[in-house]
Amino acid sequence: MDCKLEESAWRAESLVLQGQEGFPEDGGEDGLSEILQLLQVDVEYEHQEEEACPANSATWGSKNVQRKQRHWERIVSSKKSKRKQEKERRKAKHAEHPGTCPQHSKRFLKALTKEKLLEAKHSGPRLCVDLSMTHHMSKKELSRLAGQIRRMYGSNKKASRPFWICLTGFSTDSPLYEECLRMNDGFSAYLLDVTEEDCFSLFPLETLVYLTPDSEQALEDIDQNTVYIIGGLVDESIQKKVTFQKAREYSVKTARLPIQEYMVRRQNEKNYHSKILAINQVFDILSTYFETHNWPEALKKGVSPGKGYILRNSME
């Protein structure tokens, strides 16, 4: 406070000296009155600050802290005012157009997504990603698999009828887990099950269907009492029938996506055609079919043009 008073006195003295050195004056007593008023305002302002912030308070012991606190309070007050104005604006807009759907806040949408996912845990279909085959995968393959898990979870969050996802055979001290933490923000808070148990010991074998492109049986429908398994395998060397042989080892039913029933090969320069899909692509097909019960629409969603297949009715 003493420093402020000295500064105000210096400003007042400076103005007086300026008037004596020939600078334009505002006029005698009026100029002096203005200087005294300026000094009085500074004194009163500092006195108010001193009353609001006792000198003995540890929090307000520094004038720099006081300045930052006042700045922060102005920011908070401004944000509250803006939120209030935005809320009133939305109310007015909704009153003008009562038929339109209200825009929900991010917090509300996040809570709604969480509620849907937790509801799927009790009543939705289950999808297991078998991650017990990752120990032979390279660092590059593990990174690709971690990215596929992220995209699969993102699609499930957006679905109106989500699955409950289980990552089985998944150890928290594995290289894949470390890669998921590195690549996927908030991975440890994902609303899904993570377990070291194998999917074959976690569920009754008669409830399992292993989805593999090598199966002879095409998937016809999605049953909510069935647990569907996707092999969590990114194999750049393309070892055939790995997931199919694993399912046969445990005498578990298998099924393939009905690609050949609804799609045909499309001629391309490389003559490349593949039915091997990433786990997020398989999930997009299952999720879309579960919502629409339309296989062509679901396959169009998950089978990218690069796989060399198109829907039958898309041929010219």
TrEMBL record:
CDD domains, A to Z: Trm10euk_B (cd18100)
EC numbers, comma separated: 2.1.1.221
BP term (GO), one: tRNA N1-guanine methylation
Matches recorded under Gene3D superfamilies: 3.40.1280.30
Biological source species: Phodopus roborovskii
Catalyzed reactions: guanosine(9) in tRNA + S-adenosyl-L-methionine = N(1)-methylguanosine(9) in tRNA + S-adenosyl-L-homocysteine + H(+)
SAM-dependent MTase TRM10-type domain ranges (all copies): 113-310
The keyword Glycoprotein appears for this protein: no
Bias (Basic residues): 65-94
Any one GO MF annotation of this record: tRNA (guanosine(9)-N1)-methyltransferase activity
Top EC category: transferase
Annotated region described as Disordered, given as residue ranges: 54-103
Protein name: tRNA methyltransferase 10 homolog B
Job of this protein: S-adenosyl-L-methionine-dependent guanine N(1)-methyltransferase that catalyzes the formation of N(1)-methylguanine at position 9 (m1G9) in tRNAs. Probably not able to catalyze formation of N(1)-methyladenine at position 9 (m1A9) in tRNAs.
Annotated Gene Ontology cellular component terms: nucleoplasm
Keywords linked to the UniProt accession: Coiled coil, Methyltransferase, S-adenosyl-L-methionine, Transferase
